[in-house]
Design goal:
The complex is a heterodimer of chains A (about 240) and B (about 230). Chain A has 9 helices and no strands. By secondary structure, chain A is mostly helical. Chain B is mainly α. In chain B, helix 1 packs antiparallel against helix 6, helix 2 runs antiparallel to helix 3 and helix 3 packs parallel to helix 5. The chains are: A mainly alpha (about 240), B mainly alpha (about 230). At the A-B interface, helix 7, helix 8 and helix 9 of A face helix 4 and helix 5 of B.
Chain lengths: ~240, ~230
């Protein structure tokens, strides 16, 4: 711990030079850039998530006999199950990589607010999830001849993914520090993510069946409320999760 | 090792006596409900155990916050006690509810907000213990436990409201019932006595369990300390 004074010093220096908000944003962006650069060089995470997502759709195809009538009612559910499963895979991996190679300790030593590390991680996880969704949606449209390019549906997917990664990133950073980490994340995440999945499925189903906006609004509001609550909660407690 | 405090001994005996009287009130004293018959008697224990489970749930959330602020291990022990008691009582509530629901709703289970929230809370609690089990360092275990109870305590009410967007058939005996509720009834004076007595009895039982469990947690912590001392 000989470098403690140095990090404390540099923190003081940098806060003198810049307004704290710019500093925070730069730290968040640095974490995002690091994750994206690492991912676009190795493509481990994205390829695993993508192949897995397509396999899930394939399994649903045979498990539910997705013929034209069934498809109308279950598309929202199938899509969100796929996103949730692929998302867990990505969340777990993105934190496990940090832990295994000792990167997390490096990140924690950086003279920045730890919440910046959390938000950076959320944004990069969100980016991976959105990339997977951006590929799964056209594939699903192509396979089942359903038009999924509804701006409302895209909004729901954005809001749902934010909530899912917000709470998922927090829980993944705990799960990777446990002995049973490979199996722990879904068990921790799914019970607390039920409101997001429920509201997302309901809102997506509403947009796909062309329901009135007044019918969809409660679910959309719920998604926004969930996103805000869990982003702020994680912001407050993330320090206790990574503290040594 | 400290002996069991006298107040706790008295509390334990009171809890047992209250439970016996409560059972008498529910099974014998309260009149049989006209439409549902004997199975309605489940109600007295069902609501009382749900109430106790809710007390434990709130206590766990609050002590989780207190732990994160103070970082004092004694609050971690309280939190585990609250979660454990709440886990068991929610389970009893669900089982009793199912016994009642089979003849009245004609099904053991339905995805109603209350039922689902209770089930999800159980899953959160089980996940809580699995998380704790996987971590050896006591400080980290306590921190993660507190964070997870906090996340669970915030998420469970949202789950409740999320499912409320759908319709419910769960009866509301206290307060205004919804039009779709099935199996509701209004209480007579005797039923009300039995009901509130059981609520009180289970609250005392809860306090007794809670105290005993906290004491057990303190002893466990002490045993661990002694073990470490012997190894050194």
């Amino acid at each position: 711990m000989s470098d403690r004074p140095v990090t404390a010093n540099s923190k003081r220096l940098s806060t003198v030079q810049d307004p704290p908000s710019a500093n925070f944003a730069r730290a968040v962006w640095a974490v995002v850039q690091k994750d994206l650069a690492a991912e676009f060089r190795s493509r481990e995470l994205l390829s695993a998530m993508l192949v897995f997502a397509i396999l899930v759709i394939l399994i649903f195809n045979f498990a539910l006999e997705l013929d034209i009538k069934v498809r109308q009612s279950v598309t929202a559910g199938v899509l969100w199950t796929t996103f949730a499963f692929a998302g867990t895979l990505g969340l777990n991996r993105s934190m496990a990589v940090e832990k295994d190679r000792g990167c997390l300790d490096g990140l924690l030593l950086a003279p920045v607010d730890r919440a910046a590390i959390y938000f950076g991680k959320v944004i990069s996880n969100l980016a991976f999830m959105m990339i997977v969704e951006a590929i799964v949606l056209p594939v699903y449209s192509f396979l089942y001849n359903i038009n999924l390019f509804d701006p409302g549906l895209l909004l729901v997917i954005l809001l749902g993914s934010i909530g899912y990664t917000a709470v998922g990133t927090l829980l993944a950073s705990m799960a990777v520090q446990a002995r049973t980490r490979d199996v722990l994340l879904p068990i921790l995440l799914f019970p607390v993510a039920i409101p997001v999945l429920l509201a997302s499925v309901k809102a997506s189903g509403g947009f796909l069946s062309g329901a009135e906006l007044t019918e969809i609004m409660p679910s959309l509001n719920l998604l926004i409320v969930y996103d805000v609550i869990f982003l702020s909660l994680a912001f407050m407690v993330f320090d206790s999760v990574v503290e040594e | 090792m400290q002996a069991k405090p006298l107040a706790l001994k008295i509390l334990d005996i009171t809890a047992v006596l209250l439970f016996a009287v409560g059972a008498y009130m529910a099974l014998v004293y309260a009149p049989t409900e006209a439409v549902m018959g004997q199975v309605q008697r489940v109600f007295y224990f069902h609501v009382a155990t749900a109430w106790v489970a809710l007390l434990g749930f709130i206590a766990a959330g609050v002590t989780g916050v207190i732990y994160l602020v103070t970082k004092n291990m004694k609050w971690d022990i309280v939190e585990v006690a609250a979660v454990e008691i709440s886990l068991v009582f929610f389970f009893i509530t669900i089982v009793l509810g199912s016994i009642w629901a089979r003849p009245i709703w004609n099904t053991w289970w339905t995805w109603d907000p209350r039922l689902t929230t209770a089930a999800v809370t159980e899953l959160i609690y089980i996940a809580y213990f699995m998380l704790r089990q996987g971590i050896e360092d006591p400080d980290r275990r306590a921190r993660f436990g507190a964070v997870y109870t906090l996340v669970g305590a915030v998420s469970a009410p949202i789950t409740f409201f999320a499912i409320r967007l759908f319709r419910t058939i769960h009866p509301v005996v206290i307060g205004s019932p919804s039009a779709e509720a099935q199996g509701g009834f209004s209480m007579t004076a005797d039923m009300r006595t039995a009901f509130f007595f059981n609520l009180f009895a289970f609250t005392v039982i809860f306090v007794s369990f809670f105290w005993n469990r906290i004491r057990m947690g303190q002893m466990q912590a002490r045993v661990e300390q002694l073990k470490l001392k012997v190894m050194q």
